Write the structure tokens for this entry.
Amino acid sequence: MNKKQRTLIVIVRFVVLLGYLLMVLAPFYWLFITSLKPKLEILTTNIQYWPKHITFDNYIYLFKTSNFAVFFKNSIILSLATGFFGTSLAVLGGYAMARFKFRGHKLVIYGLLLTQLIPGVLVLVPTIIMYSKLGLINTMGGLILFYTVGTIPFSLILMRSFFDRIPMDLEEAAWIDGCNKMQSLFKIILPLMVPGVIATFIFAFIGAWNDLFGAVMFISSDSLKTIPVGLNMFIHNYDIDWGVMTAGGIAATVPSLIMFAVVQRFVVEGMTDGAIKG
Amino acid sequence: MRKNEPYLLLFPSFFLLFIFLAYPLLSSIMYAFQSYKLTAPNDIAFNGIENFKAVLMDNNFPLIMKNTIIWVVLTVGAQFVLGLILALALSRPFPLRNVYQAVVFLPWAVSSFVIGLTFRWFFNTEYGPVNDILLKLGIIHDKIYFLSDPKMALYSVIIAMAWTGIPFFAIMLLAAMQSIPHEIYEAAEMDGAGIISRFWNVTFSYIKQTILITLLLRTIWVFSSAELIYIMTTGGPANSSNTLASYMFMKAFASLNYGQAAAIGLFFMVLLLLFTFVFLRLTKFEKAGNL
């Protein structure tokens, strides 16, 4: 490549990266500044791209007047629990899939991939009926169970590929030293797999944190509502209070943003591995 | 005991999957052949293929099928092309790449509820910035009714949907690119391969399998995804932005006609299975030893 070509490539890359950044940030920016505007500045055709009077009224209203703090707490409990149970199941199952040759091994993998073809909406109705028979409807436990089941297939696939990366020798050495399989799993292998465990946890956490339909269907009492459901209640009025809604949108996004930023690298690794290897 | 270990380890996961996924799925298949309306809970009975007839003969059905195809092709196509461009731009190191990556991958971590809300507000005809900017730049002369014009609604939701899915493609393709041995590029350059030839013969051939599996996963996911449609337009105006998935959701939870909703769901699961089968066959995916 000559010098001219190289310069051209650098310029093209810079333009692409900048353009992409603007494209990603523009909607978030609009959401954010709207949440800081007073009502009069929101509902004006003389659009303000920078709020003239920054106010936190929308956030104050959100946390003081509405039930948002309760929704927030519910979402946190729900997502942490889903992350915990989903990851625990995936550690056990992923280990089995990566380290054992057993009858039905292929069937398990194909079965898990097939579940990805099931439209979530299709199982929603029978699940609701089953849940109401089991007394799980309108309970936090029921919702945690629902999301945990939803994350199992992908978490297993993900976890299996993480186990595949750890050399078998390490485990064999531990067995020679007298560890049994469970001991070697918990003492030797899991500490090496922290990134994989985190990626799987975050995957389950974000899934539960962000879901709307499941929570809408299973939860009716106000005290158990999650953030998307709580905010969704405001939306059906003809007059949407965009200030409060956008503030809610920002507040709903912050936890997954923080989580995502911290562990982005692991998630990227995990996503790739899990999906490529199937 | 030894022999049973893997089964024991997998048991909890599969126990839950059987009870809470396989069983509901089977019941749903049953509902598809029953008249099952929540408004008439005492009137549940088998009715053969009545539900399928009702759905397929519905006047709206051709429109919804057409929308579904447009929705899947345009969304997945845009996500793939833009995701590939982003992955290529990210494939060489530059200062602060990690920070940049964390920012541009954000849409992936945000709920479709918040994204739907954001774009609804972004595209707002009176108070939204998109119309304002397009008008000021002289690109348009009349306001666009993004979400309330039947000609525009579907495409507006597609823009939002494409936007959210670009990071997924970029992440997958980027990681695949990073596993390409560097020497191969050097060898190609020595042989005098130009940029296009290197992209085509090295990058593309190396990441082909990743592209295929990502396209498959995304197609399935976009096909069954209804949240953005529900939040931005609820399928309207007049079904102009309804797809099979959102139509099914409305049938179940607005019309409370579970039987017909299940019939739609079953119909489109069969479509997905067929698609997956044909896709894997045509691309000879299994031969590559990836599954």
Remarks:
- The radius of gyration of chain A is 23 Å.
- Chain A has a mean pLDDT of 86.
- Chain A touches chain B through 92 residues (CB under 8 Å).
